[in-house]
Amino acid sequence: MTELSEAMRVDFAAGVARSALAGPTGDFAGWLADCRARFHTRVEPVPLDRLDGWSVHPETGDIGHHSGKFFTVRGLDVEVAGAPVPRWSQPIISQPEIGILGILVREFDGVPHLLMQAKVEPGNVNGVQLSPTVQATRSNYTSVHGGKAVPYLDYFRDTGRHTVLADVRQSEQGAWFHRKRNRNMVVLVDEPVEVLDGFCWLTLAQVHQLLRLDDLVNMDTRTVLCCLPFSGAGLAERYPGVDGFRADLVHALDEGAATAHTMGEVLSWITEARTRHDVRVREIPLNEVTDWRWTDGRISHDTGLFFDVVGVGVTAAGREVGRWHQPMLRPRGQGLAAFLVRQVDGVPHVLMHARVEPGYFDVVELAPTVQCTPDTYDKLPAEARPEFLDEVLAADPSRILFDAVHSEEGGRFMHARTRYVVLSSDADVAADHPDYRWLAPHQLATLLRHSHYLNVQARSVLACLHSLVTPEGTP
Amino acid sequence: MTELSEAMRVDFAAGVARSALAGPTGDFAGWLADCRARFHTRVEPVPLDRLDGWSVHPETGDIGHHSGKFFTVRGLDVEVAGAPVPRWSQPIISQPEIGILGILVREFDGVPHLLMQAKVEPGNVNGVQLSPTVQATRSNYTSVHGGKAVPYLDYFRDTGRHTVLADVRQSEQGAWFHRKRNRNMVVLVDEPVEVLDGFCWLTLAQVHQLLRLDDLVNMDTRTVLCCLPFSGAGLAERYPGVDGFRADLVHALDEGAATAHTMGEVLSWITEARTRHDVRVREIPLNEVTDWRWTDGRISHDTGLFFDVVGVGVTAAGREVGRWHQPMLRPRGQGLAAFLVRQVDGVPHVLMHARVEPGYFDVVELAPTVQCTPDTYDKLPAEARPEFLDEVLAADPSRILFDAVHSEEGGRFMHARTRYVVLSSDADVAADHPDYRWLAPHQLATLLRHSHYLNVQARSVLACLHSLVTPEGTP
């Protein structure tokens, strides 16, 4: 495998900077409009017990595909010692395979471009969104099932002639998936690449500007994006003419910038959190979950909160043609994921939350400062409200650095939307608070070289935060 | 929590150097002889189905304690797709709790000393061995069961006034334990510490010299030791007057030393290995394992290979007094764990093996170049022999840099001994070999700041390799 030396890797931060500051190129709007005109899906509700190709197991109630492929909807029994709700059960998507989410990068005139894909997925609220070059399940990439070849997959399966910029397994929603992880990869190629229908080279500046629009840059893109080597040394000179918060942010991505806590402290805090929390999780038959019920061919919680498991029939037209049925998870209410940002020693820091979710591979991951579905708390006593939620909801617009609504994975989740916010704040927490720590963005970049430290919501907000190095504009 | 700054952390490598080069202090030999005279255990065989306090479950055959505490002997069903033996089952020790292994460090006249404990454990071949300051199970440290207080535990539970030098969860034997992990901690204190009976302050030089003796520095000490911050910048001046291989080793611990592969490459290799291997493991009732049988109150494999599960009755005298029964795992044959070491660009590198073991938390960990029980292969065809085994067994003594036999954990394993070898080698492997990579020792130190990268055998050999910075001598 060819790989950047550490010096070259850090140096690629210069490429990232060139790409993030690039001027407009190509007719992105025209390409997107064309894709939108040609690629679409029609989605209709279908009762869960009448999905073609899927069946409800007569004994367990589990919902699985006849082939044994894709995923299974099962039950999860969860015990979290000492938590406000110390035990519950719920439906969960069981999909233990590790897929690949990969973005191909190539330099044009010295400016790295990302090969993005216009992809329609049934759960999207608006049809086409921008996805990574490759979204492949393990079945896809091992060709176990002899399915249709995934375009560009070989660049990620055989990296020998290329340069791997990022390669790490990361978790997905721990409240909805049990131990779901994908391999997040960024591969730099130095050879001509055929651009297939539905694909387009974009600069990071373009992707960053698109991130400010609602429901366009999909979840898989956001999580891979944030693994790009944004941090480095001597970054200020890479971003000439940048000032204000943008300059502060560039400084905060510099590995030499001051930090509220050392990496040793941060790692020890994570070790302590992962040791302290006693979380016991086991998959159970779906018909053994309590407080959930089948009604009209879907599964809902008795309170009407959390999510429903629903069935859909999909008709896709365009590049990917087909008709299929599948179960999906449809959240109740819009999510919120917010970073509180505060200057510490002149360096913007992000308040990270050590969060337990039942589906995590390793007990606790670092989540955004606030991550919840706000509507849920309207029906609960005031003391149940998440910390810092009210600060985010009541924030003066002048303090909001980033604010957009994005979609979660459209292949599993139906109209799952989250408001992503980055908020300038004066909040503080005790330096030895068990659940919160202020981290500098370059520390988050260090953690992202390893698996399972940042959860998918944190990775999404971090991609949004990174996007602020790019000036506003029309891609 | 007080924590070293990164600069101070690196600077503590200077303390490590002072401690590793310290001259003899105190009457260690006298203290050890005194402990050996006073602390001992008597161990007698007891049939597994006649262990006081333990019972064989009438349906599952699992062997558990009446209290539900300690550990359970269960079965493990293992599938490793594509492996020479793609499916097997075996007995396994199930102990999912995370305990604490901690060494307390204090500077005397500027030289860090480690508070070591003389501890007898029933599985030891020779009674007393040197253990960390604290070996505590989760039941001990959460006081759930109101047991006897563990001395010095508070230094590791409440680190607020102290300095955490290392704090990371690491796996133990993946062939014998299912998902067993301990939290490895090193805590630096700056206040007087009472030295209780059976405890003694030792310099790193003393511990390093003791590592060259057989069966004295126990497994828990070795794994915590190797997490000390050995690597740093500008190390050469920290080790004045050091020459030959010792000087090369100091250079290899310097974070600026050249490497055969970048950390990005190493991390991508690990990600690839953890994604490529399809390992499915589930606990099953002990009486469902195949090819194992109960004979004369113990459980053995039909071939007589691998290990036996045996019962013992223990009578302990000295500081820890008591009588108890327990099951133990007794390996057949002595193990071998060896590092092949080779100069790459003038820097000694270690050949690491990406190894699958069924009990690992995360599929693959980095193991020594060779890790096996050599006798096993006398009964198997030549092509089954592990790579590099013959090079180690036939090595000319002039190439052997380290060679000692150490005991594995004496609380669970009966007379489990492993020969630890560091061997200078001319071996080479393809740069893109899927299973092997040459890593510089400072890269191993970087990986050791995170959980689950190096297996327990690799951590033991690494502690032995580190010990070579200390001149030979009598502690």
Protein model, in words:
Chains A, B: Residues 27-228, 264-465 form the dTDP-4-dehydro-6-deoxy-alpha-D-glucopyranose 2,3-dehydratase domain. 2 copies of one chain form a homodimer. By secondary structure, the first copy, chain A, is an alpha+beta fold. Chain A has helices at residues 6-20, 28-38, 138-142, 153-157, 204-211, 219-225, 244-252, 263-276, 374-378, 389-393, 441-447, 456-467; strands at 40-45, 54-56, 63-65, 72-80, 87-94, 98-108, 111-120, 128-131, 134-136, 163-171, 177-178, 181-189, 199-203, 279-284, 292-295, 298-301, 307-317, 322-331, 335-344, 347-356, 364-367, 370-372, 400-407, 417-424, 436-439. In chain A, the strands form 4 sheets. In chain A, strands 6, 7, 8, 9, 10, 12 and 13 form a 7-stranded mixed sheet that branches. In chain A, a hairpin with a 6-residue loop joins β2 (54-56) and β3. Residues 1-6 of chain A have low confidence and may be disordered. The interface between A and B is medium-sized, with 34 and 34 residues.
SSE inventory with pairings:
2 copies of one chain form a homodimer.
Chain A: H1 6-20, H2 28-38, E1 40-45, E2 54-56, E3 63-65, E4 72-80, E5 87-94, E6 98-108, E7 111-120, E8 128-131, E9 134-136, H3 138-142, H4 153-157, E10 163-171, E11 177-178, E12 181-189, E13 199-203, H5 204-211, H6 219-225, H7 244-252, H8 263-276, E14 279-284, E15 292-295, E16 298-301, E17 307-317, E18 322-331, E19 335-344, E20 347-356, E21 364-367, E22 370-372, H9 374-378, H10 389-393, E23 400-407, E24 417-424, E25 436-439, H11 441-447, H12 456-467
Parallel strand pairs in A: 5-11, 6-12, 19-24
Antiparallel strand pairs in A: 1-17, 2-3, 3-4, 4-5, 4-14, 6-7, 6-9, 7-8, 7-13, 10-12, 15-16, 16-17, 17-18, 19-20, 19-22, 20-21, 20-25, 23-24
Helix pairs in contact in A: 5-12, 6-12
